[in-house]
């Protein structure tokens, strides 16, 4: 069992441009999460390269890649991954704490962020006393507060009901569009894909096809 | 991440797992306070020794005696007077030589004579010491009443604390009553000194053919010393030059042959720096004389105290070691518990050193807080020992050996050292867990549920 080699991704080539919203679509086990993790420097490819803005992310040491992530990348997770002992405000401030931003400034920014995601008045709440949708809003605020160039979202609506999903998704898309950030979103929900500029469909570790928004919507509607 | 944020975050993490943190801290409290208390016992013991010995006399003083003449290396090396086995005698030349040794501040030759002191019908036989005034000052004897000797005093006597009660009436009793109240006032009554030990006694066998004409000297008491324990208690002090005259008169009266050269029974040497006493003693012994100082005692007693302290401290150190293992264990548990959290922090931008420092700081804080409470706890125990336990010991032991004032003594540097020590123990104990937290893969930590 241990010697069995699993090829999660094979011959995957993809260009993503600044400000694009890209959706990685695929069923469970298609390799879409692995693809995302590699792009974010969380996993290293055995072969091939990952270039972000000219930086060869796959060659960086763990320390360098953490620093790179701190400066350039924001994350939104399916399970929110908020720190349970911190309040909403503190959770949003956390990336700024790591960046060494002063307390006054980071709390100001975090407060503003919470207001934008519609959680004004929830600053002192802990995640355990919030609904899934609210928690994910905190997660979004946390991903965006540091003003990263790229945002990775791994099934951001996977744990939410369809109505809340729609709200959360609208929020994410709205925010990245406004700030001209690049968004890479992984999902198996074909509805979400409709919002993307580019839809990449994966299957068994390969890219099956890459479609523009127009092509995808035509195909879906047909 | 700023240092302040790191500290605040570590503190909050400790508060989150309150029970566990408190248990780990208690471990350090027990460990560090056992070291402090154990060491404090050693310091107390050492201080007690010093105090006890100081009550016997002055630690600055070296008594120098003649070479002994019992053969052996001391006598062999003493060639001052020439001849094998000849005792080195203490004369003015040797006094001058001793005075030149580095560290010696003052020297004084001492002569002694056993004399009869007479006050009316009361008499006392006492050892009269002739000593230079400057040395008497250095000896630092405290006065109970009267005044000290001055350089102008000739037939003035300074009494040791235990001398006045030894005056007795030979017509009534055979011996002086031990420890009774003095029947004379040595400071106001007229005193007569004589070398005639038979004075006033009845039934003294007359030695046939020898009739010695002893001189009588008028003297007056000027002061009484206060210490009943040290060597001064059983001596009467007077001007050395006056005693020299009395001695010379005695020799003449007894028709002894005069040696011509003035020799001394003893030379007292004052060394201002106690640390140099040992060295000066050695230098004098190298000249062929015997020395004795309370410092010799003190040193061996302090060595004993140090050894005991080492053993006791070692026992304390074991408990701190156990506490260190407790910290490591706490931190490892904490990492398991917080694996996911570490993953999240890494993904959202925590630098690897931040993660490491966070855990190191938490461990260090456990050590530091434990150290602070350990010190407080130690002072409480120390106080209890010095009050309650000492009370019990004093009652059980009665007067004997109860001269020490403290059982446990905590010097200020021990407080700082133990705080530093327990904090570093915490950091060392936290190093492995912290490294482990830093090296965990972010992705795998994140998947951990």
In terms of topology, how is this protein built?
The complex is a heterodimer of chains A (222) and B (449).
Chain A: E1 21-25, H1 32-39, E2 51-52, E3 55-56, H2 62-72, E4 73-76, H3 88-99, H4 103-116, H5 132-145, E5 150-154, H6 162-179, E6 182-187, H7 190-193, E7 198-203, E8 206-212, H8 213-221
Parallel strand pairs in A: 1-6, 1-7, 4-5, 5-6
Antiparallel strand pairs in A: 2-3, 7-8
Helix pairs in contact in A: 3-4, 3-5, 4-5, 5-6
Chain B: H1 3-16, H2 18-56, E1 61-65, H3 72-77, H4 92-100, E2 104-119, E3 122-131, H5 133-139, E4 143-146, E5 156-159, E6 190-194, E7 216-225, E8 235-239, H6 240-254, E9 266-271, H7 277-286, E10 290-292, H8 294-337, H9 339-347, H10 352-397, H11 412-439, H12 442-447
Parallel strand pairs in B: 3-8, 5-7
Antiparallel strand pairs in B: 1-9, 1-10, 2-3, 2-6, 2-9, 4-7, 5-8, 6-7
Helix pairs in contact in B: 1-10, 2-8, 2-10, 2-11, 8-9, 8-10, 8-11, 10-11
Describe this structure in words.
- The complex is a heterodimer of chains A (222) and B (449).
- Chain A has a single domain, classed as P-loop containing nucleotide triphosphate hydrolases (Rossmann fold).
- Chain A is 41% helix and 17% strand.
- Chain A is built from 8 helices and 8 strands.
- In chain A, the strands form 2 sheets. In chain A, strands 4-5-6-1-7-8 form a 6-stranded mixed β-sheet, with helices on both faces.
- In chain A, strand 5, helix 6 (162-179) and strand 6 (182-187) form a beta-alpha-beta unit.
- The model of chain A has no long low-confidence stretch (mean pLDDT 90).
- Chain B is α+β, with helices and mostly antiparallel strands and 449 residues long.
- Chain B has helices at 3-16, 18-56, 72-77, 92-100, 133-139, 240-254, 277-286, 294-337, 339-347, 352-397, 412-439, 442-447; strands at residues 61-65, 104-119, 122-131, 143-146, 156-159, 190-194, 216-225, 235-239, 266-271, 290-292.
- Chain B has a 6-stranded mixed beta barrel.
- In chain B, strand 2 (104-119) and strand 3 (122-131) form a beta hairpin.
- In chain B, helix 2 (18-56) runs antiparallel to helix 8 (294-337), helix 2 runs antiparallel to helix 11 (412-439) and helix 10 (352-397) packs antiparallel against helix 11.
- The chains are: A alpha/beta (222), B alpha+beta (449).
- The interface between A and B is medium-sized, with 27 and 23 residues.
